[in-house]
Structures are given as structure tokens and as C-alpha cells.
Amino acid sequence: MSEDESKDESCCESATNQSCCDHASATPATSLEDAVKKSYGQRWASQRATESARSKRLASMPSAHEALLEELNPQEGMKVLDIGSGSGETVLTIAKKVGPTGKAVGIDFSPEGVELAKERAKKQRLEKVAEFHKANALELPFPDNTFDAVLSECVVCLIQDKQKALNEKVRVLKPGGRVIMHDVITWAPMPKAVREDQKLYCECVGGAVSLNEYVEMMKKAGLTDIKTVDFTKDVKKMDVERASQTLSLEDEEAVHEIVDFVRRGGIGYALLIGTKKQP
Is the peptide bond between 191 and the residue preceding it cis, with omega within 30 degrees of 0? Predict the structure, then answer.
């Protein structure tokens, strides 16, 4: 994927720069989880049909993606899991490094994304090293102590029960293995209107939590030697016009709170690494 292909795509935007929840948010009764599933299913199906699929990762954050791969340093024989693997680009990149004796495994809740990733693996003749499964991040279909590393990229912000998601990552991780993830974070208290807006949730904003909250949840999940790297300076700024257009509400006070939150730099980005305790 070239830099030009990815530079204008946010972590949850489609190739058309349309919000990933534009269709899902038209039905207010839809749960956040259902909205995300529906929007991503539409996204991967569209990309599969046009054969113009882009990376699932935050395209305005290539620095965090590259830092994740550098931190992972995939070697032959490693077994690596990518949660929220989308169209499979990260898994396929890793598969080229860990094969032929290792495994790069991706899980995604979207059957459309899984099928697209499988097709890509076949085209690149990596199907013996790269695996893709439809699965829920809260109920990973793998035994305890399976993987050398568990990754995610701009995914945990879309999961409501973040602690359970982190617990599952650690459960399937071998002792001494590492969780490596990058995600949206907050640097200021988030307005209620942001938390409750489906579009902003699917834009990877509404579900974000602070860096300190992530660190505490990682510790509670059983991770030690936690390291964080701040990539906030590289975040593509969400301007006032975009913030206002993204909203699915008409409350002027709420709009003002959200715009103020954005102006004050309330949204950030970070890479987080933690190691599973040895028994």
C-alpha cells in the first residue's frame, strides 16, 4: 500500500472518506456493537468488490504502525495473533517473517473482512502461514498460553468491555509474551455527547479512554513492564467543521462541548506494550 493510498483515511473511515457509521447510525436503536459490526461489514464488502482494499490501521498514524512492527520484531517460528485483523495486511506482513515454521493469525468479527483477508493470503501464497478466523475479541477461540505476541491496532477503542478484551489477550499469551497495541486515547474528560454518539464511537473517538486507564487495565489483566509511547503529535487533527458534521445530534450546547474538547487537544494516540508475568 502506498503512502498516497492511505494518507487521508482515518482508523474507521472508508475509502470514500465517509464515516464508518453513516449507515448504521441511521437507526438509533442499534447498539454500538451492532453499529460497528454493520459498518465494517459494509466496508470490507465494498473493498472486496472493488479490489481496492486499504489497510485497516489508522492511516494517518503510520508511525505507530511501524513502531508496533519494530517492537514485535517478528522472527521465524513465532506465533502471533492480530485482533481486529480486518483486511489482513498486518497479518500478511508478519507471515512473511515468521514462516514457514511460525504462524500469523488474525481474528475479526466481520465475515466480509475474514473472506477478504483469506483471498489476499491465497494470492500471496501465504495460506499455510497466515490464518484468519471470524471471532469475538471478548471470547478468543484459542487455548491458554498459545501466542508469543498479541497485537491490535485502533481496535480496543471500539470495544465496550475493554478490561475483558485485555484479559483475553493475556489469557492466550504465553508467559513472557507481549501485548503490543496502539490506540486512540483521551487527554481530557470526554463530554457525554461524544460517548453516546454512534458516529463518533465508530470514528474511534467515543470509546477512547485515558492513557492511565489503559495502563491500569493492562496491569489488572496481568501485564508487567508496561511501556507507552505517545504519538499524539502525529494525530491528524479533527477540525471543528468535521467534528460538527460528524454529530448525529442537534443540541447546540452538546456541539459546543465537543468542539471545545477537540480544540483543547482532548484526543491523542499511543502505543502500549506489556509483558505477561512468568508463573
Answer: no
